[in-house]
Amino acid sequence: MNRASRRPLWIIGLLAAALLVPLLLALAGTPAISPARLLDPAFAGSTDGRILWQLRLPRVLLGFLAGATLAIGGMVFQAVFRNPLATPFTLGVSTGASFGAAVAVKLGLVAGLLGFSSVSLFSFLGAAVTVGVIYLLATVKREFSTEVMLLAGVALSFLFSSAILLVQYLSDFTGSYQMVRWLMGDLNAVGFERPLQLAAVLLPGALVVRWLCLDLNLILVGDDFARSRGVNVQRVRLVLFGVVSLLTGVVVSFCGPIGFIGMMVPHILRLLLGAEHRWLFWGSLLGGGVFLACCDWVARALIFPAEVPVGIITALLGGPFFLWLLIRGRSSRYFL
Amino acid sequence: MTDALLDVKGLGYAPDGKRVLAGVSFDVREGEFVSVLGPNGAGKSTLLKHLNRLLPVREGAVRLRGRPVADYSFRALARIQSYVPQAKGYIPPYRVAEFLLMNRFPYLQALGTPGPRDRAVVEDALAQVALTGFRDRFLDTLSGGERQKVFIAAAMVQETDMILLDEPTTFLDPLHALEIYELLGRLHAREGKTVVMVTHDVNAALAHSGRMLCLKAGRAVFFGSPADFLSGRALDTLYDTPFRRYECPDDPAGPPAYLPGRSGP
What number is the ipTM of this complex? Predict the structure, then answer.
């Protein structure tokens, strides 16, 4: 059986994992909750019930949604730039969003819009500004050059990192600690408000990406090639950049800049499913969600009752795995 | 004023003040085979990219069926013209059949899935380039010749009246090059496709073209039939080198070959 015909099985497997794993992760932990107790009508009112419904399930759900969002964003950037290193994280979009959020924290802004806090809004603004600057730099050079965009992104990433350090330096000890802790990534959620807000952004964003999967397939071959097949490359790229900045901005504002997922998850799934984006889309969505939910569970379980920041876990798990993939001879062919 | 499928008038292009094309005029009739020749850097690929809107027409006019190409959407254009780019750069790890199916894009809805008709077109194109057994191979594992045939099949899958090709045989060995020319000849003669081919292969251009366009430093220095091309000695001036004519000793009536050379062999 070849790789293409195994695709439906992989997707079904991922779908099953996406349905089961979050529930199992919510039940496991300290204290562990037996699945049988879910059927008990008195359970929802008990302490364990409140832990499950108010803390664990929202947190697992937030992790799943954030992971799915980051993986989709990575998949889109890797395809548009035709480069596995190009993700919102490596191109400075996450750093721009972090800077926006840090400024909002520093200024102590409390106003919100449409249910999103000013931290979220500033964070989206930071992401959008970064994407805008990268895009402008590349269009000034007329030809859309991947190398120019990558370099611009790396430069912006450094710039925003320094700016964040400056904001931290200017803050008092508590504010500075909060920012550092937040920059390590955090999936804390009390109640379903945050997961639902993220879902409200992810769903339309993911729909747009799914809408443009046929376009992405051709853009991966080349801009001119895609255009000659009828893709309006300019417009598709603009729409996708907007969507990815929105998605990245919201995730970063909720959870901090969690790296590696956007690069690693789509890449691994490309090895399993191939580069066809209609399949890769579902794979990244489900795989990214399950992966981050699991990472967060590990982060909580590792040094109980302390919680290791989830960004550390994704990098610790992801880094070696990624290196192993690259070292395996066969995988160099599937570099993207 | 003209019944030409494609009509180019006074086309110029000078990005950043650097002149690449100047006052190029020619036309392509329905079902014609036109070759574009010229030294490296003469503007051949740039000209081709103006024909299918890959570059915007800033000076002069490019009309397709009487309408400026800019009036067509990319999707509408992709149903009339297909394009085989120069074989270079990154190739994604798609499977051959999966990749060919992607070229049905101009006929697919955004969330649609390719249907039996799309698959039939892909199978037909695979059969025409004799690569049916390569259906499940990965693009990036193919040889240069196989890859080029797949890219021509990708253009065929678009089911267009017109095919534009940019140096389709440049990196190929003589046998693979011959197969590509036979394939293009078949598409032209049997299916009545209009072909515009940029090439460095003078002999192939002479053998297959109805008319030839010669570019030198961005200007059209010749546009006409192969017979006029030869009688006018356009070949020697085009490449700034004398060409010699060779006849096949076993087949004196067959087409002669032209090769560059200052002195006798």
Answer: 0.91
